Amino acid sequence: MRALGIISFEDNTANIEGLCDHRPVPAIAFMGRYRIVDFILSNMTNSGIGNVQIYCKEKPRNLIEHLGDGKHYNINSKRGKLRLLYGEKSFSSDVYNHDVANYMLNMQYIEEDPNPYVVIAPSYFVYPIDFNDVLEQHIESKADVTLLYTNAKDAKTQYLGCDVVKFDKFKTVLGLEKNRGKLKNQSVSLEAYVMTKKLFIELVHKAAETSSLYWFKDVLADSVNELTIKGYQVKGYVACLNSLPEFFRVSMDLLDHSRAVQLFKPGWPIYTQTNDSCPTIFAEDAKVSNCVVANGATIEGTVENSIISRGCTVRKGATVKNCILLPGAYIGENAKLDHVVVDKYAIVHHIKKLEGTDAAPVYVARRDRI
Amino acid sequence: MRANNMVAMILAGGRGSRLYDLTKKVAKPAVHFGGKYRIIDFPLSNCANSDISTVGVLTQYESVLLNSYVARDHYWGLDTYDGGVYVLTPRERDTANLEVYRGTADAITANIDFLDNINPEYILILSGDHIYKMNYDKMLDYHKKMNADATIAVREVSLKEATRFGIMNTNKDDMIIEFEEKPAHPKSNLASMGIYIFTYKTLRKYLVADAKNPDSHHDFGNDIIPNYLNDKKRLTAYRFKGYWKDVGTVDSLWEANMDLLKDNAELDLGDPTWKIYTEDVNALPQFIGKDAKVEHCYVTQGSVIEGSAVNSVIGTNVVIEPGAKVIDSVIQPGAKIRAGATVTRCIVADDVEVPAGAVFGSKNSKEIQLVAGKSE
Fold this sequence. Notes:
Structural class of chain B: alpha/beta
Mean pLDDT of chain B: 94
Distance between the termini of chain B: 43 Å
Number of helices of chain B: 8
Oligomer: heterodimer
Mean pLDDT of chain A: 95
Number of strands of chain A: 26
Shape of chain A: globular
Shape of chain B: globular
Number of helices of chain A: 9
Largest sheet of chain A: 8 strands, parallel
Strand content of chain A: 25-35%
Low-confidence stretches of chain A: none
Strand content of chain B: 25-35%
């Protein structure tokens, strides 16, 4: 596919509380063995995009380790390239650290890429998509920009802070505005775009010249009258991981295997960094139901409606219900957890009971001991 | 090769005929074990963990899958600048037609040019058929310390078992003075594990001489080792303690899998200091259904369990449908146990579909039943 892939970063309305203190959204562990970035990156490589730039707003350490040289994402080590890019220059204030500023600082890498098109998408929307289909429609429609969107059915509680799109009857974008949860049915922008690289560069410059606080989506919103922006509806599974309750809800929703295979579509592999974990041990007294379990875990207790990531331990007599245990979490004997997100390598053994709710799951911090 | 100047050669040509249909289309070293591994992952991971960077794999029987598998040396981190996994199959030559490897020693002799190119100081001969974790670098230290020409890894067995193995009779310094293949009246309980370290220069001379001997079986145990002993070369026994299993039969393959379920299992595949590496399959995590029961099981990714699994090893992408029961069994990757089927004391071969309601095996069976696909 003749496109440069650009994985953009989300704006400040997306904040998975707690988890984001330790790493950027794309590096957050998701569904037991993945990181959020795996989905959009696999979409790109599965679509035949060999040159991918991943922009990181801050805290790149986790992401560097996870992405490596991109070989495990099926990026050809000779003909392809995975670049993790971030602002070399530190920003005097967080408000200046936005996507446009980072594109400007790395403009040479965008300019020197030989592909005529760009595919831009952030990682915090997870969905399967073949970008070849999008590019095909883009070229056929003769649009300047093609914008991916989903028809959300519960925009009152989901996709809050995302952009909703107003179309005319020819699916031409008339305007973009923030979703403040007023309407149930909304077309939500996935902040993913296809356009020529030339136009992309022009728009980035235009944004930078207009305002030093402009994000890329701001310049697009400004340009709806001058440019033809067409919508491309993503009809299958889409989820937006932009808050802790949403991260929790989406994870729980994917415990249903028939739902999960809409995201993990057969023939459309989601790549990730391997950890060479051994299989998971279910002990004699283990009681496990409705769970997603990764490798390398040891389960001796009772686990219901939960996601158990790589290398987690649930000791005897412990009860884990409606929880997400991130990699390496340890739940000691007889601890009772309900609606808890336990971050990586945290140890819960002194406190015997932790209870949250769907709207406010309890968060146990990374490497915490409680 | 830089690390310890030792090249490993893995003999992986065995057919494994007592595994029946499990080795109908793949060589024994490629047979799955422990849900996600293949047998040859063990010697290859041991090599990687022992700082060995160059590994030759000698294949012969049904080698298509095995060759393509081991060639992906990055699975085991063996894709270093100066190392790699090299697939060595029988070949046609300028002076001779294609000849299969005639014995374990012949397989090495036939690749002397490969070894000469690398020119290692030591050569490690391994079998691709065994499940164990071993630090070959420590064995090399021992070989050097004993100033040996050859070092043979041995493990202690009962005298009764000793009649089934090649037995090393040693002096008080563990120097080998006699080798007996499957002795009726064993004098020692030190069984050869088929793991040898040779100083390459010496071995090379013996291999060349052996190749010219028309009466030789061209076998390490039968020919090379006895010749070393006749010439009073320094042969030492290296005692190995720990888990080791030849998984050459359906029963022993099943047993070795069941060993993974034991509390404080001797064979701990979760030890972060000695990982066993394998193919990275792009499978989802495990999905355990609402009404599922999973007790005392070893389960790997990609499996979807909606029925019940007790005391079993469940491989990659295995499906156990609602109402299906898997008891005391090993389900190899990709197998599907359809609704209501019951499988007890079985090995269900790769990608086999057990039809709905079918019953295989029984709680009191003497032998483990192999459930394989229809023979082609």
